[in-house]
Amino acid sequence: MSLFARKAEPSGFQISCFAVLLPVGELLIWLAIVVIPTLNLYAKLQALHSRGEPLAFGSFQVKVPQARQFTFSLDMISAERYRTIVNINLPGALAGAAITVPAIAYLRKHPGIIWVETWNAVTTPFFCLPIWWLLGRSLDLFLTTRRVQAIMLWAGSILGCASIALGIGILTAPLGDQKDLAPFLPGAIFWAFAFGFFPVVRLVRRLGASLQA
Length: 213
Hints:
Blueprint: H1 12-15, H2 17-51, E1 55-57, E2 60-62, H3 69-88, H4 90-95, H5 97-109, H6 116-127, H7 129-143, H8 150-172, H9 175-181, H10 185-212
Antiparallel strand pairs: 1-2
Helix pairs in contact: 2-3, 2-6, 2-7, 3-6, 5-6, 8-10
């Protein structure tokens, strides 16, 4: 049987499987990378505070006020892992730009609230949830060989082109900027392939159908 032949449609649960699994899986990754380590560090700070001991960072030691222990924990973990979170949810940065840009501008003027890295690590996964649903829904339709809706293809194509443009921008950026932008190149490459896959498959299917006609 041809790879591009149409198959019988499975049950409704199977059709919507990846549209649910991908957003849920993305949130579980976020919990494992950010939330659980933050809670672990917060519990450690609480224990140290009860004994009157400082937190050791290599050769440095710091005592964190009890009122700041949770935000300190979240800032520390986010600063270490926000690049991974942004790479996984790179389209979320674009989807949430209308909120993120003014929020980051405000946080730069008031750094005592939370760090910019913390904002990105916490909000980007939620801004990207519709994108993960779109990718999962497209994958469901592809696996059942049903036609991916035109609006989904257009949305995916636009986001894919944006990812390609970002990747090119990173590679052609001045050397001084590449140091800051290079960590996000894996995310740009992943999402360019993820969104580019379905338009290419649809084109190949159309070519195959025209050749068989």
